[in-house]
Input
Amino acid sequence: MYATAALGNGATLQPGDAVLVKFHAATGKMKTGTVSHAEMLKGWFVMVKDSKGRYAGNKLWGDGWGWSWFDAANPSKTTSADYKTDCQPCHVPARVSDWIYVSGYPPLRG
Ligand code: HEC
Output
C-alpha cells in the first residue's frame, strides 16, 4: 500500500523485514473541534530495519535502516533523496535507541 518497494533503486522488502510507518496527518480546526482525518493525510514516514547493510551506496539506506517519506498524493514513489539530510538530523537525539524515538518496538531490540 505504501510502496516500500520504491525505497530507492530497486530496493525490495524481504520476508521478516521490520517496517515502521508513521502517519503524518494535517490537523485542522473544525466546528466540531480539532480533527485529524484520513482525507487530510499528508503522507508517511517509513523506516525498514536493515541489519545487513544491504544497499550500500543507496542514499536512502544506512545506519541500520532504509529511510523514506511518501507523499499521500503520490504514494508509489518516495520523494526523499538522502536520509542523512532528510531524516537523520532530527533523529540524532534517538541515536542511542537505534534512531527511533519510541522504545515500544521490542522485536527490534537486540
Ligand atoms: C523535523 C524533524 C524530523 C524529521 C525531518 C524526520 N523526523 Fe522522524 N520523527 C521525528 C520525531 C520527533 C519523532 C518521534 C515523535 C513523533 O512520532 O512525532 C519521529 C518519529 C519517526 C518514526 C516513528 C518511529 C519513532 O522513531 O518513534 C518514523 C518511522 C520516522 N520518524 C521516520 C522518519 C523518516 C524516514 C524521515 C525522513 C524521510 C524522518 N523521520 C524525518 C522527527 C523528525
